[in-house]
Amino acid sequence: MFSYSIPRLLALFLAISTAVAVTPIISTVGSKFFTEDGNQFYIKGIAYQLIPLDPLIDIEQCQRDAKQMQDLGANAIRVYHVDPTADHQGCMDAFSDAGIYLFVDLDDFPTQIQPDTPAWNQSQLDAFSAVMDEFQKYDNVAGMFVGNEVLTT
Q1: How much is the CA Rg of the chain, to the nearest whole Å?
Q2: I need a surface site. Which of 4, 89, 119, 138 has the fewest CB within 10 A?
Q3: Burial class (CB in 10 A: 0-12, 13-18, 19+), 53
Q4: Res. 85: pLDDT tops 90
Q5: Which of 21, 29, 66 is closest to 45 using CA atoms?
Q6: Beta bridge partners of 28
Q7: High-pLDDT (> 70) share of the chain, %
Q8: Whole-prediction pTM
Q9: pLDDT, mean of residues 25-31
């Protein structure tokens, strides 16, 4: 069996590139991302969920991770579970300063869409809205996920 450290695994999956110190505005055209100067933006990122709860509240951890990700050439992370009532400013600044965008899942364990019995209700809407309200103020949020692996037949 192979044994790799997290930084080594990241290096295997990320193309090494120079990261920009500030996140430029990106937008979508069709299914592609573009920077405000018209260049296509290619996502080079990882899933970032060190703990079952919100990973974007430990500022020191975010600063260490953002620096390492920047050194490896990452420009995006996906976060699966966040607490919309927590203070995310320090971590969001750390990732922004490293040129890293976030894709944030709107759901959490209690509000996730169940693949075997998909449904939508007011508590999900309220929870998803709270996450959108919290993260819409950050320039380095590239997108939000509504469901995770929701496949039904």
Answers
A1: 16
A2: 119
A3: middle
A4: yes
A5: 66
A6: 33
A7: 82
A8: 0.79
A9: 90
